[in-house]
Design brief:
The chain has 388 residues and is α/β, with parallel strands linked by helices. The protein has helices at 12-19, 32-43, 99-109, 128-139, 151-164, 215-223, 227-231, 245-254, 267-271, 315-320, 335-341, 354-363, 367-387, and strands at 2-6, 23-29, 54-56, 73-76, 113-119, 172-180, 191-199, 213-214, 262-263, 300-301, 322-324, 330-332. It folds into two domains: 2-210 and 366-387, Vaccinia Virus protein VP39 (Rossmann fold); 213-260, no CATH class. The protein has a seven-stranded mixed beta sheet, with helices on both faces. The protein has a three-stranded mixed beta sheet with strand order 10-11-12. Strand 10, helix 10 (315-320) and strand 11 (322-324) form a beta-alpha-beta unit. Helix 1 packs across helix 13.
């Protein structure tokens, strides 16, 4: 099945879609350094990346008509800075708001499905009306905004169109959900908004993939059975105390254990196979000195999923891109460790400075999470194709 990837960054979502079985007709990214990372992996003949038609281009000027109209999936990690908790909170007033450009791509290519990822901040109450506007624009992309029309006036027209009962032209069924990457096997607590749309004429019924990993099972493996510590060969004297029977009973009442799920993955799970920084064959695994914690921005505990990786290095973002050991010491994550936390393959390299690498990784979609959602979309498109 065919796909087009916009705002590709270092390639996390594009890689997830490729792993799910989509073949990209275009991978578009404006940032030169991010494109260099993708090119470096293509030069290494990395599977699922080597054949990407990469365009270092401005999406606002990209000729979408050259991709054709037989596109199964249009995927995009739309720039998150306008909506980020750590940004300037300009939202729809931010020049980096690329949702209108996303709609141009939709109208031109008419994809069967759309997949959009963005930050949790998009769901803030202050952006509630604009988020409703985004969903209605995706639902009815042919209802165009007029020249000089304010977005709130366009929103009102879209609301009238939705309630009119008469739907013509290109329309989509739109759903969204806030997903925590840790619940899908990513060793990172990363909450992101995913918007999925299917073209209405297809009549596809779809829901977001069920969670596969459980916080409760991690707790049980650490504080009830102790299996987690055994897996990592942690001496008993260095393990935390087991939970009391009373505490375990209360926890079990609040958290029904699902035997079909696996436990959350931790920082220790992710980095242990790499070995200490600088001592192994893995690339991008050199230690960066000078790690510090900042109030409200401390490191990721070794035996939990990592905190959300941030697009920064030193200063406040860097305070969260560190590992917090049980003895209270911290160190910066290496680029390779950060890539593991974002579920990039071990042979997927990042080019440029450590600062630039950490920016790319902080902005990336975890490949595993992208894979899970894209695979669910592909399965529904496949079922529809077989039925027809």
């Amino acid at each position: 099945m065919t796909s087009v990837e916009l705002f590709a960054g270092a390639g996390g979502l594009a890689l997830g879609a490729s792993l799910a079985g989509f073949s990209h007709k275009a991978v578009v990214e404006i940032d030169h350094d991010a494109c260099n990372t993708i090119r470096a992996n293509q030069e290494r003949k990395l599977p699922h990346v080597v054949d990407w038609p990469l365009f270092e281009a401005d999406v606002t000027k990209f000729p979408f008509d050259q991709c054709g109209t037989d596109i199964d999936l249009l995927a995009a990690g739309v720039p998150c800075q306008p909506w980020s908790m750590g940004g300037k909170h300009k939202g729809m007033q931010d020049a980096r708001n690329m949702f209108p450009e996303m709609l141009t791509a939709v109208r031109t290519m008419r994809p069967k499905a759309i997949l959009i990822e963005n930050v949790k901040g998009l769901l803030r109450q202050s952006f509630a009306n604009y988020f409703q506007y985004i969903k209605l624009m995706l639902s009815f992309p042919d209802v165009l905004r007029k020249d000089g029309e304010q977005w709130r006036h366009h929103l009102a027209r879209l609301e009238e169109y939705e309630t009119s009962g008469s739907k013509e032209g290109l329309t989509y069924n739109v759903v969204h959900e806030l997903l925590n990457a840790a619940n899908y096997g990513v060793p990172q607590k990363r909450e992101r908004v995913f918007i999925v749309c299917f073209r209405s004429d297809l009549g596809i019924k779809w829901h977001f993939p069920k969670q596969t990993h459980s916080e409760a099972l991690l707790w049980e493996s650490q504080f009830v059975t102790g299996e987690y510590w055994g897996e990592h060969k942690v001496a008993k004297k260095n393990r935390p105390e087991r939970a009391s029977e009373k505490a375990t009973a209360r926890f079990r009442e609040r958290n029904l254990f699902d035997e079909k799920k696996e436990r959350w993955q931790t920082v220790r799970d992710a980095i242990t196979p790499l070995g200490p920084p600088g001592t192994t064959k893995f690339e991008n695994h050199q230690q960066q000195p000078g790690a510090r914690s900042y109030p409200g921005h401390t490191g990721s505990p070794l035996d939990e999923p990592a905190k959300t990786l941030k697009a920064g290095d030193h200063g406040v973002p860097g305070g969260e891109n560190t590992i917090l050991y049980p003895d209270g010491s911290i160190r910066y994550m290496t680029v390779r460790e950060s890539a593991r936390l974002q579920t990039f393959p071990n042979d997927y390299i990042f080019t440029g400075s450590w600062t630039e690498n950490m920016r790319q990784l902080g902005n990336a979609v975890p490949a595993q999470l992208g894979h899970v959602v894209a695979a669910g979309i592909r399965e529904k498109l496949r079922e529809k194709r077989i039925a027809d």
